[in-house]
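Margin note: ligand = protoporphyrin IX containing FE.
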Amino acid sequence: MSVSILRQLRAGLLVVALGVLSSAVMSCAYHQKPSLYQQLGEKEGIANVVDNLALLIASDPMLRPRFVDVDLFLFRTHLIEQLCKVSNGPCEYTGGSMKEVHRGLDISDAEFNRLVTHLREAMTKEQIPYVAQNELLSKLAPMHSDVTYQ
Ligand code: HEM
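Resulting structure:
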């Protein structure tokens, strides 16, 4: 085989290898894991979760009395913003700090756990994957000390 044919073969192999490599990189980009915000269904999915949660709270004798005098429209708006922000969505949270907002309410661990159970159910209803549910809840868990016994 002449040197020039060998060179052409080598060049051809290089082109094929680069093609395989670039398609592997492209397919990786296409199969990137969706972000938590995307898995929550973005703004619309989060709004649905918050609406489901509000219904569950409203039908729960343990939690309902807590929200009797609350401006539910504002609560909804702020909770949507907050869940959007903690899941790294494109939102600003315009509500008060968790410590300020829950100060004086003396919320117990049992109430906190009940709300978390409802939030999980609210997400399950929206068919949010279990792993994404855990990811969101793990971002809210550190708020426990600001929300309870304040
Ligand atoms: C991780 C758990 C919780 C999160 C992330 C959370 C988040 C929020 C947010 C974003 C607001 C609205 C803040 C504002 O409007 O400035 C709020 C208000 C409120 N939350 Fe929570 N909350 C949690 C747990 C609880 C629990 C367990 C209770 C009671 C059982 C509760 C009772 C209230 C009440 C009564 C308000 C209205 C306060 C007011 O407007 O004066 N929260 N919460």
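The mean pLDDT is 89.
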